[in-house]
Amino acid sequence: MFAFAHRIRCALAMRFSTRLLTGTTFALLLLTATRSFAHDVGAEMANVAAMFLSALTPEQRATATFEFKSEERFNWHFIPRARKGLAIRDMTLTQQELAQILIQTPLSHRGYFKAATIMTLDQVLSEMENHAPRRDPGQYSISIFGTPGKDPWGWRVEGHHLSLNFTIGAGDVAVTPSFMGSNPAEVRSGPRAGLRVLAREEDLAHTLMESLTEHQRALAIYTTNTPREIITGNNRRATALQPVGISAAELDAKQRETFMELLREFVFRYRDELAAADWKKIATAGPDKLHFAWAGGLAAGEGHYYRIQGPTFLMEYDQTQDHANHIHTVWRDLENDFGEDLLRQHYEEVPHGK
Hints:
Layout: H1 2-14, H2 23-33, H3 41-54, H4 58-64, E1 65-66, E2 86-87, H5 93-104, H6 109-128, E3 141-145, E4 153-159, E5 162-169, E6 172-174, E7 178-182, H7 199-211, H8 214-220, E8 221-223, E9 246-247, H9 253-267, H10 272-284, E10 291-296, E11 304-309, E12 313-319, H11 321-324, E13 327-333, H12 340-349
Parallel strand pairs: 1-3, 8-10
Antiparallel strand pairs: 2-3, 3-4, 4-5, 5-6, 5-7, 7-13, 9-10, 10-11, 11-12, 12-13
Helix pairs in contact: 1-6, 2-5, 3-5, 7-9
């Protein structure tokens, strides 16, 4: 799988080398290269997903596809485990290229960098752990739910420390649950030493905490004990947690700017066309209803946890495992996880019996 990890790293520098691409894949790259002029991301994903499926054998297609109403759509997790769907290691080079194009279609440049680099970290772990079989950068699976382009439908890319879930329908796209993690949080040896995939999620939160007055910090820190994991785990349903911590209304202008930039780091992992709608919904809540809560230590290397919560969303960050060099982050939409809100709208608009 080293060759696959190497191809992803090359893709981060120049997407994909055209000399390796089939005519079909190259045409898709030309399409995605002009995506800044397009606004229907759902239609783009449907086109790429259909192209991906058309490149599979019947047996592969049977492995990769599920009915939209299948319970498998909700079977998400971020640990290394056996998964359904078609694993990247079981794809041909052309199929892998199409899978990567599907993954990058809804993501911003920063989001795709994070996702693709997270996938290569299993190669780092493999080298650290004497080539343990469970560490495999090809052990990420693509699952398609329903028929691309026929509302509603969805898809997922998932593996160790990555679970991106998309639901498309009613002219809208839902992007949660959205999980990204990093182990190690910082690569400390070897040719990739110094790599920190989720650096901004960590650094912006520390910058905010360092800027707080003693009184503000007392509000923000709700406990000195750190949870061992994000509190909501891989729960099927997104549920609000106690809105502890400091509200954005209690921050000064500079602190609030840092706070909002931290929020943006989660939301704008996705393309502007997708992120803008979620950002508007989050920002509309008002600063008094947005809370930032911290648990654990403040010094470098100390385990810590934070969460940001508003009326419609929850974001969690946990850095406690492996001597605080292991990060889990998740973004949950309290109204529209797995597209629940857009599906409600879709079925209300479809005539009864259709």
